[in-house]
Structures are given as structure tokens and as C-alpha cells.
Amino acid sequence: MVLKVFFPSCCSSADSGILIGRWISEQNSAVILAVVHFPFIPVQVKQYLGEVQHMTKVSVSVLGSWSNSKQEKEESLSEFLEDLGTIFCHEPWIQISKEGDSKFWSCSTLQKHSKNPQEEEIILVYYDQRKVMLSHLHPPLETAGQRAEDASKLSAIFDTVARSQVLFMTDRYDEGPIKLTHWQSDGVEASIIVELLKQASVPACMLLTFLLSLVSGICRSRVLTFWPLSFLWSKLSTCEQLGHRLQHLQVISSNKKAQNQNQLMRKANIFVSLLIDVALGILLMSWLYRKNRIGHLADTLIPVADHVAEELQDLLQWLMGAPAGLKMNRALDQVLGRFFLYHIHLWISYIHLLSPFIEMILWYVGLSACLGLTVALCILSDIIALLTFHIYCFYVYGARLYCLKIYGLSSLWRLFRGKKWNVLRQRVDSCSYDLDQLFIGTLLFTILLFLLPTTALYYLVFTLLRLLVVIVQGLIHLLVDLIDSLPLYSLILRLCRSYRLAAGVKFRVLEQQDGKPLRLLMQINPLSYGGVVQTYRLPTYSCYPRDSWASLCKKLFLGELIYPWKHKGDKQN
């Protein structure tokens, strides 16, 4: 049999004493948790272990003795350590000794009550108690009380260390009859600032919860269900982002304790994401209100809008002639060109009508950056959508005309083949047509076919312009999604304390010598950065269309509309 002894590396310099830990018979392993120093009273040690076992539900007991002497061991100490095995009655009794500055330790077992004692091969595994405690490789809290651990895994060792947290609350400076050495022997890790923040967070969270419940109640009121407000709330990406941040604030201010590691990391990631978002928004706001940058921006906005309108007019004049040498239907070409030129004229008049108020609007819009950089970016996306609304109208008009002709040609093509579309059964059925129907169908098919190139050219040009605007909005929303979903706290934790995000363990051989126990070092394998992003990525509410390339090409060919805003229920989880 192979006996595995898991020894905490923080106890390698501890004074002589007895080893406290848990014996796992299924794995023939001993997990050492702490060292109790001499002198001590055995009755008090048993009473203390009983209290710890009652609180942690872990069968903690005295497993053996530990001897650390820079000089040669005295025979009296050796005999005393052996006699402790009869007092605490544990089988087998483990004896670990470190002599001087030697890098090899001696480890042996005593089996006084066994009739046929057998020599066991011993493997001494060192582990960092602090990293194992904080690595969260142990089972979740809701399953920690179960006794059905898998004997073939290391989860029992991590579970033992995690559930023995009460044992690590006492340090060497506590007044008491028992002195322990463990990973927090020099003092429990704590911070006065953190404790004060914990105390102050309770009333702050209560106030924030009340305010958020009031805001969410207003948002769910029947006032927002009326047509204009409901339409704006569902179409504007700023409203979507504000609702998304409102849900984040409700998660942070919740007084419910996190049930597992994923929920805790999700709250921390949301909190850090909000802090960085608001900090970047305040920096943007301070930059905008310096040196009258908002006034310069308002003065630049009108000439840019006029320049875009002039370019569109030149483009329409080019389409009304002979674009690229193509022969167009002149009547339809003139009608469509004048129709779109009139819309551009209306748009220029609308922009010049709002020009006296643009600076004031931008001044108040700049204040919204204090809500976060993502809110400011969503407002920028909405402003772009409003400034390019005439391009969207051109695209819709061209797409509707093109779609009407495509579906008309497909229906008339079925007429030539003696087919028709069955609306009730949603399939193509055979049908017989008379001579008049075929004659009218031929005339309509010819007219639509010869008018299709002119309509298709306008549709192609305005679709490319619309795709350009959608790409710009998509880049903005990709940046918003990056800020919203990137697990910044997990990435910082991976960079500074990688053992907190553990993916597993690995063993490294330290020393091996005949007649001495094999010494291994158990190390924590951290998650990769890609694994951190994939595991702790936050859900987002994207406003950018996420159609596949095949679906997008099909929509473009059939003339279906490409919506710049997300539909209701399109949530990315």
C-alpha cells in the first residue's frame, strides 16, 4: 500500500508538536491541516478538536507527531512522541521529522494495534495551504456537507482544507492553551478599510435597492406602454443600455449571498465593469467641457451634414444620367431621382431648422457621460441613426420597390410554368390558366423585367450606403459589448492572483532517494486568459444585427430590410 501524506508547506518551519488533520481511508491518505506545539494538555486538545469537528463537520483528529530540531534528536523526545500514539489512538500513527538543515525528511508510521504490520511506501506531498484554500477547487458549498466524495479524485483534499476554515481563525498571538501553526498563524488576513467598507455597504445597498426598485417600478408602469414611449424604448439603443445597467445595479445591490464561485465572480465583474465604465465616462465628460469643445463640435456638425447632403445630391444626379454607361429607363429614373432629391431638400431644411439648438442639445447630452462611457456611446449611435435617417428612408424605399418586383417576377414565372402558390398549404401546386391570364401575365412580366435594372441600381447604391452606416453603428456597439461583457475583475485576478482561478493541479518531483519518502510539490494550474473570458463573460444585450452571412446575402437579394436595432427577445446569454 502507498500512504500519501499531504503536508502544508507553511508548517515546514514549525516547532515540534502533533499533527492535526483528516484521515481519508478510501484513498489511504492523510491531510495535515495544522501543527499543535508543545507544551499542551491532551484533554484540552481533544476538547478543541471536538468543537472544530462539530462546527466544520470534518472528522479532524490527531494523526501523528512532528519533530523539527536543528540539533540531533534526543531519545526522551523520541520516546515521548511515540507515547503520544497511545494517548490519541490513531492507526496508523505518522511520524515526520526534520533534522537540521537537511533537505530530506524522515517519515514513518507506527501500527501498534495491528497484528500484521506492513511496511508502507510513503509519498510526502507538499501543498500551499493558502492557495488551496482560495483556489475554489473544492466542491460547491451546497454539496460540501455530503459525504459521497469520489475517492478517485483530489476533491476530498480540497474539500477538507476549505471546510476547515474555523481551524485557521486562531493565530499564535491568541491567548489560549493551544498554539497552532497554519497558513494564517501570523495573523488572519484582514484589512481595516475592507471591514469599514463592508459595514458601510449595508445602508448604502439598502438605499440603492430602494431607489432602484422605485426606478424599475416607473419603468414597468403603464405610462411606458403607450405607443410613442414604447416605440422609443424598444428602438433607441440608449434605453436598452440604461435598462441593462439597471439590471446590473440590481444584481450588485442585492442582499442575497452568492451561492457559488460563479455568482460571486459575476457580481465582482459587474461591479468592476460599472466602476471603469463610469470612470471613463467622467473622463470623457471632463474632456468635452474643456476649451469649449462642445461649441466647436456643434459648429462642425452642420457643415458635415450639408456636405453629406451635397454628396448625396451629386450621387443622385449621376444616377439620373447614364451611370457607368448603363442604359436606364429614363422615365422611372427621373421619377425616382426627383423623389429622392426632394427628400434631401426636406432633410437639409430640417437640419438648418435645428441648428440654433444643436449646441444646447449637445451640452445636455454630454452630461449623460457621467452615467458611463457605454451610455455615451449608445447616445452617439442614436445620433448617427438620426442624422442618417434620410439614408435609411432611401434604403427602405429602394428595398420595397425591389422586393415588390422580385416577388412579382417570381409569381409571374410560376404562371408561365402552370404553377401557383397555395397560401393555405404553403406549397406550390399545379394550376391551369386561360389565354387572357397568360397574355396579361406576359405583359406584366415584360414590364417588370425591363424596369428591374433601374430599380436594382437604386437599391444597390442605397443598400451600400445603409450597410456603411450599420457597420459604423456595429463598431460602436461592439465597443459597448466589450465594456459590458469583458470580465475585468477575473482578468485582473488572473494577472495578480492566478491561483484564485484554478483549472487543476500538477505535481512536481522535488527529491527522491532510496530509503527516504518521495517528496512531491502540488502546484495550482491557473486558467488561461481565453478560458477566463469564456468562463466569466457577462451577458450582453446587443443592438447590432447578428445574422449569418448566408442569411444576410439572402435578405439582400430578396430586398428584405436589415434592421439596425435588435428585436424584442434577442438576448445574448
Automatic annotation (TrEMBL):
What molecular function terms (GO) are annotated for this protein?
A: transferase activity
Residues spanning the membrane: 200-219, 270-289, 335-354, 361-388, 394-416, 437-461, 467-492
Q: Does the keyword Cytoplasm apply?
A: no
Specify one Pfam family: Gpi1
Q: Which domain of life is it from?
A: Eukaryota
Assigned GO CC terms: endoplasmic reticulum; membrane
The biological process GO terms on file are: GPI anchor biosynthetic process
Keywords (alphabetical) are: Membrane, Transferase, Transmembrane, Transmembrane helix
The name this protein goes by in its record: PIGQ acetylglucosaminyltransferase
